[in-house]
Design a protein that fits this description.
Layout (H helix, E strand, L loop, with lengths): L2 H13 L2 H7 L4 H15 L4 E3 L4 E3 L1 H32 L1 E6 L3 H17 L6 E6 L2 H10 L4 E4 L1 H4 L5 E8 L2 E6 L18 E5 L6 H13 L4 E5 L2 H9 L4 E5 L10 E5 L7 E7 L5 H13 L5
Parallel strand pairs: 3-4, 3-5, 8-9, 8-10
Antiparallel strand pairs: 1-2, 5-12, 6-12, 7-10, 7-11
Length: about 300
């Protein structure tokens, strides 16, 4: 017994006419008869009394009708609500980001450019700012359609597609330091600076490994920790130290920060991630556009 059979039963209970039910349900009259017979065999009681001229509900059939009809109504309403939610989802695009100075400076420009070239009046874009681990959860739960991230952050996630946008360097980041003569810093040269690190709960795994390595090489290094990258940047701009982070973290066209690469083998990467299944058209369209146009915003 399935929902379609139940709908046939409810219709016949209301029409009490096999021919009319067959027309309304787009079935043959024999198909309606077979469905009702199969239901009666499964239920082990008769639903209708049939004569050559009339069809009537049995007492059991009447009780069954009054119980089943509300359930079918709830089912139909549930389907309509789910379809409406799916339509709304297709017309929404929720972008998750971790709040780097670069993202804060570039996202308004990027979204404005996207809407001008690709977007439409029915598309609604939302932004959500969370730490990396929360962004991963929100992507898996469907709360975010796409997130800005790094591959080492999502490396253990299944059914996630990553699109790389840029490869950079881990750098020593100075504020208003035009007198810096280095083109590159060795890890062993960092002992003379007060360093601003990101908290291990926030920073990507590759950066956390780098921070631990710096401390192991420079035993007496002075380190201050910030609970997110925006706080790290503000501390550097307040003269509280020099920052260790990837060059693509800095705000768009920020001339106040001088980034000098570290002599370090790991090259950080930055891109976007989305689920590898059930992705909406608006998500695919945005990801495709961004992968082709991202370098305009570097």
């Amino acid at each position: 017994m399935n929902f379609e059979h139940l709908k046939v039963f409810v219709n016949l209970a209301e029409t009490l006419n096999f021919s009319r039910t067959a027309i309304e349900m787009n079935l043959s009259q024999s198909a309606v008869s077979q469905i009702i017979s199969s239901m009666e065999n499964e239920l082990n009681f008769f639903l209708f009394k049939r004569t050559r001229k009339e069809v009537h509900l049995t007492e059991s059939g009447r009780e069954f009708y009054h119980s089943i009809k509300p359930l079918l109504n709830v089912y139909d309403k549930s389907v309509q609500k789910a379809k409406s939610a799916a339509i709304r989802k297709r017309n929404n695009l929720t972008i998750g980001y971790s709040g780097t100075p670069y993202e804060i400076s570039i996202l308004p420009k990027l979204i404005e450019e996207y809407n001008r070239n690709i977007g439409n009046d029915s598309l609604y874009i939302f932004l959500e700012n969370f730490a990396h681990n929360e962004l991963k959860d929100r992507l898996l739960n469907g709360d975010c359609d796409i997130i800005f991230t790094m591959p080492d952050i999502i490396s253990k996630m299944e059914n996630v597609k990553y699109i790389n946008l840029v490869e950079g360097h881990y750098c020593v980041n100075f504020y208003n330091s035009s007198g810096i003569k280095h083109n590159i810093f060795k890890i062993s040269e960092l002992n003379k600076f007060r360093l601003v690190f990101s908290d291990s709960e926030w920073c990507p795994p590759s950066q956390n490994i780098l921070q631990k390595y710096i401390v192991s090489v420079n035993k007496d290094v002075n380190v201050a920790y910030a609970n997110n990258i925006l706080s790290s940047s503000l501390m550097v701009k307040a003269g509280l130290g020099v920052g260790i982070w990837a060059d693509f973290v800095n705000a768009y066209q920020d001339k106040t920060i001088t980034s000098v690469p570290l002599n370090y083998s790991i090259r950080p990467k930055y891109g976007i991630a989305m689920l590898d299944y059930g992705v909406t058209t608006s998500t695919k369209r945005f990801a495709n556009w961004l992968s082709k146009n991202y370098l305009k915003f570097k």
